[in-house]
Write a structure and sequence with these properties.
With 492 residues, the chain is α+β, with helices and mostly antiparallel strands. The chain has a domain at 133-414. Helices cover 20% and strands 14% of the residues. Strands 1, 2, 3, 4, 5, 6, 7, 8 and 9 form a 9-stranded mixed β-sheet that branches. A hairpin with a 2-residue loop joins strand 6 (288-305) and strand 7 (308-318). The longest helix has 27 residues, at 2-28. The termini are far apart. The protein binds heme C.
Length: 492
């Protein structure tokens, strides 16, 4: 026992050492496209460490940092005896990823953090400063280009744009009432729109990082590698394990995909509690673009990181979305300007987390009335003293002074038995694979959703037809497209 423990510690020490070396070498080799001379002007050997984890957390928990570098590995000590024991390590990874992806972006470049080791850049950024994930290419850049080729990663414009007169690179959120077209960005995944308490629709925004975008876009020299075209995608999907996108290793970032939920800012809102952005809202019926300030209310992050071939799934929400879980004590007072998706009373009643599913109105018709939303799957309170709630409390305190203190990790879901190939459990559904075991033994198996993005799929019952009430159960159905529903549904 003693020796095996010691061996574990040695391995852990080695991993920590590797991570230090890796982050050091990241800093020494800025990305080639990093042309801003000020970007690395203030060299710091390592990002500032934060206070230690409170008593009760596993001793092997890595030290939290405020850094713009997305973590490239997940440390899970060999001594964890169950997936549940590993949760704090994954939640730590989720929060560090959240900070890095919401780091102010280096202007003039795409997906690059500005001075990733200088915490004051993060703490002093005015609200609305473009953040790293927000500069990723969006779903429309990749799949909405009709017969044209999506533009190269660094390019600031796309051949086809919904708002042609707009500023290059400005966020465009698309409203359409024409049914489920590739432009549809108000309707939730396989579902209905969401209307907030101010009687506005919520909008969705899907983005891909450089590795994933370039992988799907393919190489100029090889037209068969252009996977946004169905004729190229289909044969790859039929391979034994389907499409396989690049995976993050300590040496390089691999595939990450992000989906965000936004709502329109109104005079009733306190913008200090939300990350805000300027956007163009495109109405496909009227064919007009209207500028709006939007508030970030939800953020999904999926990261294909070695050895997790079935990806690691994290989801965050702004804390004012819906009332806290009933077992939270003492009961926090409601947010100063009310909840975004709940009127703060017990009426109307919610069943399965919502009171009704609004229809899509016809042209010129008024927006349907607000949806009353509640959280069905509580934010995990296990393992006791080191749960997702405890990790949230830790980070929210450290992020005071920024809008990010008003966000919470709702859940992390990951494959407890990851890997593809011989001796591994992974099998595509179309080859007879069964969830969760053949999806890498997803943990937890069920109940991992975001109230702003899977509002109507919170219960197993409601989600049965759509693929289940968790990230991995539903995205496993797009397993042949490497768990990307965007690639699966929007290749044309
Ligand atoms: C009931 C099914 C379902 C559930 C549950 C679900 N998703 Fe999705 N997800 C989708 C669909 C459908 C899309 C839409 C792709 C599009 O419109 O291009 C999507 C899109 C995404 C994207 C954008 C990129 C892409 O190509 O898929 C991310 C990231 C994502 N989901 C993460 C998550 C996370 C994290 C969770 C769990 C907290 C989750 N999803 C739960 C069905 C689901």
């Amino acid at each position: 026992m003693g020796t095996s423990l010691r061996r574990c510690e040695k391995i852990l020490f080695l991993l920590v050492l590797i991570s230090i070396v890796a982050s050091y070498s990241c800093q020494k080799n800025p990305p080639a496209n990093n042309t801003n001379p000020t970007a690395n002007a203030s060299p710091a050997a390592s990002p500032p460490a934060m206070p230690p984890w409170p008593a009760g957390f596993p001793q092997q928990m890595p030290t939290p940092v405020i850094s713009g570098n997305v973590p490239r590995q997940i440390l899970v000590p060999g001594s964890t005896s169950s997936p549940l024991d590993a949760r704090p390590f994954f939640d730590y990874f989720s929060w560090e990823s959240f900070i890095a992806l919401n780091w102010p972006a280096l202007s003039g470049s795409r997906g690059v953090p500005n001075e990733p080791l200088n915490a004051s850049i993060f703490f002093n950024a005015p609200n609305g400063t473009p953040v790293v994930w927000g500069t990723y290419k969006d779903s429309f850049d990749l799949f909405g280009q009709k017969d044209q080729r999506p533009s190269p990663w660094e390019s600031s414009s796309s051949p086809v744009s919904p708002c042609p007169g707009g500023t290059a690179g400005q966020k465009t959120l698309i409203f359409t009432t024409k049914g489920d077209t590739p432009l549809m960005q108000t309707k939730q995944a396989f579902s209905f729109p969401l209307v907030d308490q101010q009687n506005n629709y919520a909008y969705y925004d899907i983005r891909y990082d450089e590795a994933q975008y370039n992988f799907i876009r393919g190489q100029d020299s090889d037209p068969t590698s252009w996977l946004y075209l169905l004729k190229n995608l289909a044969p790859k999907e039929n391979a034994q394990f389907g499409v396989q996108m690049p995976m993050t290793t300590p040496a390089a970032l691999g595939s990450m995909m992000v989906k965000a939920a936004w709502r329109i800012s109104t005079p009733n809102d306190d913008p200090k509690r939300f990350y805000t952005s300027n956007a163009q809202i495109y109405d496909s019926q009227k064919q007009v673009c209207t500028p709006a300030t939007v508030l970030l209310v939800g953020l999904h992050i999926a990261h294909k990181i070695d050895p997790f071939t079935e990806w690691v799934w994290s989801t965050f929400e702004q804390v004012d979305n819906v009332p806290p879980d009933p077992d939270v004590t003492p009961k926090p007072s409601p947010p100063p300007r009310g909840y975004s998706f709940n009127n703060g009373t017990d009426s109307p009643k919610t069943n399965g987390g919502y009171n009704y599913k609004p229809p899509f109105p016809g042209a010129g018709q008024p927006t349907p009335s607000p949806v009353q939303v509640s959280r069905v799957n509580p934010i995990p309170n296990t393992p006791a003293g080191q749960s997702t709630r405890d990790v949230n409390a830790y980070y929210q305190k450290r992020l005071q002074g920024t809008v990010w203190q008003f966000y919470q990790l709702v859940i992390t879901q990951w494959p407890a038995n990851p890997g593809i190939g011989s001796g591994k459990a992974f099998m595509l559904m179309q080859n007879g694979g069964v969830y969760p075991q053949n999806a890498g033994a997803a943990f937890p198996a069920n109940g991992a959703v975001n109230t702003t993005m899977e509002t109507y799929f919170q219960t197993e019952n409601d989600a049965a037809g759509a693929g289940g009430n968790s990230c991995m159960s539903c995205h496993y159905r797009a397993g042949q497209s490497d768990f990307s529903w965007g690639l699966n549904r929007r290749a044309h």
